[in-house]
Amino acid sequence: MAAVLAAELLKLRTARSTSVVLALVAVIAALGVLMAASGANAFDAAGAAERSRWAAVAPIEQEYLAFWQVCLAVLGALAVTAEYGSGMIRTTLAAVPRRGAVLAAKAGAVGALALAAGAVAVVGTHVAVRAVLGDRPFDAYTAPMAETVPLLAALSAAAAVAALVGLGAGVLLRSTAGAIVAAVALIFAPPMIARFLAEPWADRVAAGSLTGLPAQIAGTAPDPVLGPVAAGAVLAAYAVAALAAGAVALHRRDV
């Protein structure tokens, strides 16, 4: 199993698409820092009442999570659909006939890289924004760094889960476009649908989304629907469900 995982890590690391996706993750982080700089200037020019509204905004890394999730979902999808497109999947399965082991290795490689990339992006953005804002009283950036760790960890985990969802969708659909569309819909559709629902369903749908779960896991959501443990279980369920669907398809279908 270790050899299979090492092979999948090598394929993922040497794929050109991986470099492109990670570059996009970095660009999004840079845009977040630029937005913080613009917000700092607007804060300085605002009156007292307006400043109080600015101070209560959610952290930028939380607002940008969905965009990182899309990038990493693409990474996960391409980890398998590129092999289907090139025919390399036949070579992979000939070398490792146990299809479950192949999928587990791909999930391990994608999950590890996505978690690392997500953590660097989330933590890097938070630290950079904190430096840009200085002593301005933005609630999300004036708390001690140690108090922000749970949210940063939850955001990083949610980014990795999106990559695993993309991988599962890629195995299930065997199509890069289809897998990306499915992952993007899963990321953006629930919060959008929630806006058109009456209470309490609006809050429930939004709370169960891939972007709504991290704050509940960290205990920073203003009006949580789920407790930290339940929210963590729902987040894990996204990855488990996607990979389980992919595993069933991989075992039942010919290559």
From TrEMBL:
The keyword Transmembrane applies. Pfam families: ABC2_membrane_4. Keywords: Membrane, Transmembrane, Transmembrane helix. It comes from the Bacteria. The chain crosses the membrane at residues 66-86, 107-129, 149-173, 180-198, 229-250. The keyword Transmembrane helix applies. This is ABC transporter permease.
